[in-house]
Design goal:
The protein is an alpha+beta fold. Helix 1 packs across helix 3 and helix 1 packs antiparallel against helix 4.
């Protein structure tokens, strides 16, 4: 069979962007979910730690002296913020994971578009193809 040489002159940047976005978002789903879950777990732990500082005290001569360390250290606003973020729960984990996947999808689209634009400006890819009839099987050389 005769061999033919083809040259890829340019890539369509729109289809590269679509493919990059979809593949980037799909690949990022699991890591984004794990990072989101870890973030909310960390927020929950920090909130629990700060909440436990409300009643810090010790005993002197049978009397208990108590301090509200959140008030003393002026961490009331931080504790309220952590409580608000932690109260979002599973919905927050899912939304943050989706935002992370979309962000990484946009990054993948941008990278593929830049690679495609670079190729369109500089490269020419020569591909040799061989025509094969329907009844023959292709074997590796």
């Amino acid at each position: 069979m005769p061999k033919r040489a083809l040259i890829i002159r340019r890539f369509a940047l729109g289809s590269l962007a679509q493919w990059g976005f979809v593949s980037g978002a799909l690949i990022a789903c699991l890591p984004a979910f794990v990072c989101s879950w870890g973030f909310f777990t960390l927020i929950q732990a920090a909130r629990g730690l700060l909440a436990s500082w409300r009643e810090v005290g010790f005993e002197i001569l049978g009397q208990r002296l108590s301090f509200n360390m959140v008030e003393v250290l002026n961490l009331k606003d931080l504790l309220q913020l952590l409580t608000n973020v932690a109260s979002v729960g599973v919905l927050g984990i899912v939304v943050l994971a989706m935002l992370g996947a979309v962000a990484l999808g946009i990054f993948g689209a941008l990278v593929l578009m830049l690679l495609g634009a670079f190729y369109n400006l500089t490269g020419r890819l020569r591909v040799e193809v061989e025509e094969v009839s329907a009844d023959t099987h292709v074997q590796a050389p």
